[in-house]
Design goal:
- The protein is of the alpha+beta class.
- It is built from three helices and seven strands, in the order H-E-E-E-E-E-E-E-H-H.
- The protein has helices at residues 26-41, 129-142, 153-172, and strands spanning 46-48, 58-61, 74-84, 88-93, 103-108, 110-116, 122-128.
- The two termini are 27 Å apart.
- The mean pLDDT is 98.
- The structure holds ligand K1U and zinc ion.
- Ligand K1U binds at residues 43-48, 91, 93-97, 133-134, 137-138, 141.
Length: 173
């Protein structure tokens, strides 16, 4: 497995709708493994394929909190939200493509998601708490949407300017 570079906003690839994965191939398994390694290394609790420059509908996540609890690496291919709760939840979100910037985002508190796993089998699960927030954040990435798109325009512009500056500094280093 290998670490992949994470794209930093603004990047046109982060604004595109990703294409469905037609078949679970060796290439897809390698991508999923690389993305999990990249996510744990960052560190983060989720990562979507467009964030590593691959415009395919695949995401990984592991929202297990306690160090003592066993890890739960998940790979979701072609995920679809089948149900959302009426109850909403606000969480201060971050994003590996928008480092060190945070903002409150309101989303359904619980969701049911259907997806294909790495064996090509259909799966369905109800997510709550941080898992629900994370899976919705990652599915947004597959649809070219970032958490800053939920913020007020001025705050979004300020964060975008900071990211342009960060990218300029990184390019010079
Ligand atoms: O998609 C991403 O950019 C990953 C992002 C996922 C996410 C975070 C918060 C709310 C919703 C979705 C991150 O993982 S940011 C880093 C982060 O949250 C974290 C890092 C280390 C320990 C715990 C959390
Ligand atoms: Zn993100």
């Amino acid at each position: 497995m290998a670490l992949r570079d994470i794209l930093i906003h603004p990047d046109p690839r982060l604004k595109k709708v990703a294409a469905p994965v037609p078949e679970v191939t060796a290439e897809i398994r390698r991508l999923a493994g690389d993305m999990l390694e990249t996510m744990y290394d960052a560190p983060g609790i989720g990562l979507a394929a467009p964030q590593v420059g691959v415009l395919s509908r695949l995401l990984v996540m592991d929202c297990v909190k306690g160090e003592a609890d066993p890890a739960r690496p998940m790979v979701l291919i072609n995920p679809e939200i089948a149900w959302v709760s009426e109850a909403m939840n606000v969480y201060e979100e971050g994003c590996l493509s928008i480092p060190e910037q945070y903002g409150d985002v309101e989303r359904p508190a619980e969701v049911v998601v259907r997806w294909t796993d790495l064996d090509g089998k259909g799966q369905e699960e109800r997510f709550a708490g941080l898992w629900a927030t994370c899976v919705q954040h990652e599915i947004d990435h597959l649809n070219g949407k970032l958490f800053i798109d939920y913020l007020k325009p001025l705050r979004r512009q300020m964060i975008t300017r900071r990211m342009v500056k960060l990218k300029r500094e990184r390019a010079r280093a």
